[in-house]
Design brief:
Number of domains: 1
Number of helices: 3
CATH architecture: Sandwich
Radius of gyration: 15 Å
CATH class: Mainly Beta
Number of strands: 13
Distance between the termini: 25 Å
Strand content: 25-35%
Largest sheet: 5 strands, antiparallel
Shape: globular
Order of helices and strands: EEEEEEEEEEHEEHHE
CATH topology: Jelly Rolls
Length: about 180
């Protein structure tokens, strides 16, 4: 797994994750919600608090309700890289889940729900996200490849086009 965090200003944090077949560890956020855009391969999202598993295909988005425990993994065939762009709005926090191996066992061979036409909650940040997409279209962050740059721009524009101008509701469950 490779994480490239390259932008965190004014309450917007953008990262790119290139996943081999190791999942991001189970974690949760109290102050932000993960918005992800699948740009390559297939991403699986496991949510133990609601006992749900989702798959996200290229061009689709998914938003994890905060503070739900979750992890992202590569659901593409073995040997195929999957990539997602992550956008978080607000003050970043992360809490890793102890004894995550037990959680992972719950999801072995679990039926996955495909995400189609997902939406994300972007609050009042639409103009900021558009400005950021325009910026990254013109200037490539040093840590990104040209393809990753294009993926970031596509992700930000997708978040805007599918964005609902409300805050994401808090999950009913507590981790």
């Amino acid at each position: 797994m490779e994480m490239k965090e390259f932008y965190y200003q004014d309450g917007l944090r953008v990262s790119v994750f290139n996943l081999d077949h190791k999942a991001v560890p189970f974690h949760f956020h109290n102050a932000v919600s993960d918005m992800m855009y699948c740009s390559q391969g297939r991403i699986v999202i496991e949510l133990p608090d609601t006992d749900e598993v989702f798959t996200v295909e290229p061009g689709e988005v998914f938003q994890v309700p905060s503070p739900s425990r979750h992890r992202f993994g590569n659901a593409a065939p073995v040997g195929t890289l999957s990539r997602y762009v992550l956008l978080q709005i607000g003050t970043f926090d992360i809490n890793f889940v102890p004894a995550a191996e037990e959680l992972a066992e719950q999801f072995v061979d679990r039926t996955r729900t495909p995400v189609v036409d997902g939406t994300v909650h972007i609050g009042d940040r639409r103009a900021d996200i558009v400005k950021l997409a325009d910026h990254f279209e013109q200037e490539k962050p040093e840590v990104l490849t040209p393809q990753e740059q294009a993926d970031v721009v596509a992700a930000l524009r997708c978040f805007v086009s599918r964005g609902i101008e409300t805050e994401h509701p808090q999950a009913a469950v507590q981790p």
